[in-house]
Amino acid sequence: MATIRINNATYIKSNPSNTLLETMENAGLEPEYNCRDGHCGACRCELVSGEVEYVGFAMAYTPENSVLPCICRAKGDVELSNVNYRLKEKQA
Ligand code: FES
Description:
Blueprint: E1 3-6, E2 10-13, H1 20-26, E3 29-31, E4 45-49, E5 52-54, E6 66-67, E7 72-74, E8 78-81, E9 85-87
Parallel strand pairs: 1-8
Antiparallel strand pairs: 1-2, 3-9, 4-6, 4-8, 5-7
The structure holds FE2/S2 (inorganic) cluster.
FE2/S2 (inorganic) cluster binds near residues 42, 43 and 60.
């Protein structure tokens, strides 16, 4: 199964039916987001390697090599950097 490498530190399994944002959340991460619809740019990060497919229209500024995880899915192994996230706190 394809993997998503995040900030050169974390690996998670890729789920091609979910967006990158949803995949990170399902893996126990809390990535930064706001609109979840390609408008605000809060989720923006860099695509170091791999390919993504957009499932929505990117309205936020996305410089070259940047992606909006809320509206794209991994097409295979993907490496991202500058992802702002923290680990979900475990509930007792
Ligand atoms: S959360 Fe707003 S562009 Fe991704």
